[in-house]
Design brief:
The chain is of the alpha+beta class and about 260 residues long. The protein is built from seven helices and 16 strands. The strands form three sheets. Strands 1, 3, 4, 5, 6, 7, 9, 12, 14 and 16 form a ten-stranded mixed sheet that branches. A four-stranded antiparallel sheet has the order 8-13-10-11, with no helix packed on it. The chain has a two-stranded parallel ribbon with strand order 2-15. A hairpin with a 2-residue loop joins strand 10 and strand 11. The protein starts with 6 loop residues before the first strand and ends in a 6-residue tail after the last helix.
Amino acid sequence: MKINQPLLKLPLRIDADRLSAEISALPISAWLPHPGKVVGNDAVPLITPNGVITNAFAGPMAATEHLRACPYILDIMRNIGAVWGRSRLMGLAAGAVVPEHVDVGHYWRTHFRIHIPVITNPKVVFTCEGEMVNMAAGECWIFDSFRTHDVYNGGSDKRIHLVLDTVGGERLWDLIRSAESEGEDQVETIVSGSAAHAQIRYEQVNTPEIMSVWEVRCHVDFLLDQAPRSEPFAKVIEILDRFLHHWGALWAQYGTSREG
């Protein structure tokens, strides 16, 4: 399932003050520099493989010590009701940028990204495929990070967002469809403890060592659907079709075995 526009505001309202107080209580040491050394960008790991402090993507996901110290963030996750992947608090210093990019790779191909502004200002501009928005504190936005996007903090203070990655879930699909119908439903405020009974679900399977032939076909179809129709397009399809049939034959012979 895909969202039908670059950026979509979900019909949820977050208590930004409560969230800010919770995040402010975290130790300074929780904030790590951007792994790509992008100036002015730092993050607090909340969900990681096995809950350890790492920037890795693959493996069974679990809460870090920092997430376990943030009960309201856990309430937000329970309320949205998705299956959660790698997630973080993301900081952007005054005057800093996240350069235009696409989050390419298997992980990003299969995940959505939810942004919840905690501390922000009117001069923070988020752009996705040419659509520009200023996300207000306490709003809840979703976008497909497989599209081109960038961020600029033109204000004088650090911007902090809660950023949750997910493959989705039934409750989240309902929220997306409600948002796409132009907010016919009431905006729901997530109250602390309102979903205390709900289980938090973390993804246990995410990046396969060897993809099945059906998954490979899915990715190829996705990319072909976005590719420009030019003169060599028919030849590209022919080459990819041959590749897919070869992959299918090897899959039938070996499956996921090391021998294959």
